[in-house]
Recover the amino acids of this structure.
């Protein structure tokens, strides 16, 4: 598991009504308790799922290889969700993450790029992700577009461009050094490299959000942009950076997807935007901004991936999977709210 | 493409289509026309490559966001280019029903001579097919079938049930001497009817082999990403099985990747659709993939042939009928190492 045990201090304070000047240095006890409970209830849901998995399919579910599989499958959408957490915390939304992953993955797997091997693919994926994020950021921060509109436009055009580049074809990767990252030989102490990348992104994301000026500004912009502006924060530049950050995460995720699937396809990253938003919200990030938690988002992603894994191991039909997934989302959120309400903290 | 080696009912149907197609490609009907003439009435002209009345064919297909659909568009365009008397009016592909209806209506207004429509959703586009037929424009319905036979002059398409059936029978023959054999199914998009038909055919075929049991079935999304993810789960869930039937070669790229990542070699895999990458793998014979069941995109080229023949009032070579048949179902041939060389040219990228 990637989440640190010390979840209590992982979140900066809620600044919805607090001017940034009065921002406390760390999480106060009240905040700590609230967020701790929130993540504890998510951990409870995850634990319950693990019990169900272990009970229904003990041999398959509890195997080391299955733990590796679940974490690997969580890692790509997990990286995207970390970027999404920042954006939502700042009061924005990024609907283009799936399309950015698709575009970055097909651009990075074109024949020309493959000539430059590992570095060429990695570099292109990240540059394309950052580039798309930059366009999003400029449109939103300086063009005055609503994030919903700007990123939905990016969704459409990036998917279109990805389709045009591939011409609907699957671009198979032939660079062995990239493909080798996905096989068992590349595991470090039993941990797949993709999971290590995910863990690194989570740790860095957590540090940036909770321990840096950049993170405090993100909360401030999401909580009250006007107050943030009065406090001397360049709100527009901060927003620009946040969408670039989301694009960067998508570039990294695209590279990870290339490693895993061994190809670039314009359908890559399908519906990542919904999965990432759902995971962030379940994790306790407030859609209206001002509150966000990286650890919660990671738990949200892990809950989703574990559900999918248990369903597949038990050979459930697609329709049943979808119904149950919806129900579990509702339960997860209800459990959270109920836990908080009992403490009078909602 | 020729399908003469396996004469079944479908084989005969597709074979006749292939005969006419072959004749049209090469334009070599002059070599042996006498044999057919003895059976066919003298006044039944047969479509061939010789230029005839100028024909404008309107083509409306779905968005080519997938290898197979892309190959459909390519096949139609390439075939239309071969005829000096054919002009192809092609619309931008769309997966949006309303948008596609609008596109077909535009083609009707342009008064094309004949329409080839591969609907994003057959049932939803039935009305616009009826509209075209009422306007006097014959409709060639490609693959996804309209709800009413009144909405098309001729239907040509693949056989999803037959795909499953042939995949199941192939696997059955491979495993018939193995007691208590287990198979796993990696299906396509579960909310498409074609996926249910493929599964039904597969299940029906397995009934012929009581020693085989299907132990797991999961649906993917026809994409490499979903193929990899779902296959990785299936491999985790099933530590031991003998054969895998994967509905689609595009998602098969991902499935093969997951199998390689897990280091599994203990079963045989049968794909579906007929992608070039799958045929290359079958030819190389260095992976678990041993066969793929065809769902050939060449049907789009045949649809152009039929559309041209209908517009010119001609019939099919090799058949006694004066008219183009009302429906043509392709044969889902099984491509293995033995016959892959024959099919490789039809493999799509």
């Amino acid at each position: 598991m990637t989440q640190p045990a010390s979840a209590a201090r992982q979140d900066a304070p809620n600044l919805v009504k607090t001017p940034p000047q009065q921002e406390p240095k760390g999480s106060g006890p009240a905040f700590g308790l609230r967020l701790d409970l929130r993540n504890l209830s998510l951990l409870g849901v995850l634990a319950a799922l693990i019990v169900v998995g272990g009970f229904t399919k003990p041999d398959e579910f509890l195997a080391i290889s299955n733990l590796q599989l679940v974490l690997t499958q969580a890692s790509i959408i997990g990286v995207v969700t970390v970027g999404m957490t920042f954006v939502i915390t700042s009061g924005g939304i990024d609907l283009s993450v799936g399309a950015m992953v698709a575009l970055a993955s097909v651009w990075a797997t074109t024949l020309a790029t493959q000539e430059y091997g590992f570095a060429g693919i990695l570099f292109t994926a990240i540059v394309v992700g950052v580039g798309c994020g930059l366009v999003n950021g400029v449109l939103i921060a300086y063009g005055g577009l609503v994030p919903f509109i700007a990123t939905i436009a990016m969704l459409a055009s990036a998917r279109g461009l990805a389709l045009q580049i591939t011409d609907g074809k699957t671009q198979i990767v032939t660079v062995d050094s990239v493909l080798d990252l996905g096989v068992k030989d590349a595991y470090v102490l039993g941990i797949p490299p993709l999971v290590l990348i995910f863990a690194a992104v989570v740790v860095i994301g957590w540090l940036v959000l909770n321990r840096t000026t950049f993170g405090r500004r993100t909360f401030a912009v999401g909580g009250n942009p006007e107050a943030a502006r009065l406090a001397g924060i360049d709100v527009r530049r901060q927003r620009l950076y946040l969408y670039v950050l989301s694009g960067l995460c998508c570039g990294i995720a695209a590279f990870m997807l290339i490693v895993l699937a061994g190809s670039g396809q314009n359908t890559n990253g399908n519906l990542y935007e919904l999965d990432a938003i759902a995971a962030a919200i379940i994790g306790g990030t407030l859609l209206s901004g001002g509150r966000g938690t990286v650890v919660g988002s990671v738990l949200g992603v892990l809950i989703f991936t574990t559900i999918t894994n248990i369903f597949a191991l038990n050979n459930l039909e697609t329709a049943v999977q979808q119904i149950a997934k919806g129900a579990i989302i509702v339960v997860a959120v209800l459990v959270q709210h109920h836990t908080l309400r009992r403490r009078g903290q909602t | 493409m020729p399908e003469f080696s396996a004469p079944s009912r479908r084989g005969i149907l597709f074979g006749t289509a292939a005969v006419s197609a072959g004749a049209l490609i090469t334009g070599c009907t002059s070599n042996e026309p006498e044999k057919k003439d003895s059976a066919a009435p003298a006044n039944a002209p047969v479509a061939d490559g010789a230029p005839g009345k100028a024909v404008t064919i309107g083509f409306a297909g779905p968005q080519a966001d997938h290898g197979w659909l892309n190959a459909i568009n390519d096949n139609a365009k390439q075939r239309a280019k071969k005829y000096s008397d054919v002009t192809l009016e092609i619309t931008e592909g769309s997966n949006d029903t309303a948008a596609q209806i609008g596109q077909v209506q535009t083609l009707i207004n342009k008064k094309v001579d004949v329409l080839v429509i591969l609907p994003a959703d057959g049932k939803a586009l039935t009305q616009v097919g009826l509209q075209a037929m009422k306007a006097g424009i014959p409709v060639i319905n490609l693959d996804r079938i309209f709800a009413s036979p009144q909405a098309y002059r001729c239907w040509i398409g693949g056989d999803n049930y037959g795909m499953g059936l042939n995949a199941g029978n192939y696997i059955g023959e491979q495993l018939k001497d193995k007691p208590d054999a287990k198979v796993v199914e990696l299906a396509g998009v579960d909310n498409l009817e074609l996926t249910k038909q493929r599964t039904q055919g597969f299940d029906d075929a397995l009934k012929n082999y009581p020693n085989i049991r299907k132990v797991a079935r999961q649906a993917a999304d026809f994409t490499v990403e979903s193929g990899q993810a779902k296959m990785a789960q299936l491999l985790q869930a099933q530590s031991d099985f003998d054969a895998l039937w994967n509905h689609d070669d595009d998602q098969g790229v991902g499935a093969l990747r997951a199998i390689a990542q897990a280091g599994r070699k203990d079963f045989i895999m049968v794909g579906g659709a007929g992608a070039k990458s799958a045929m290359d793998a079958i030819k190389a014979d260095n992976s678990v993939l041993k066969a793929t069941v065809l769902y050939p995109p060449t049907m789009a080229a045949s649809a152009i042939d039929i559309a041209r023949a209908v517009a010119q009032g001609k019939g099919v070579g090799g058949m006694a009928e004066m008219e183009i048949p009302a429906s043509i179902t392709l044969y889902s041939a099984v491509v293995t190492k033995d016959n892959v060389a024959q099919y490789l040219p039809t493999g799509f990228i």
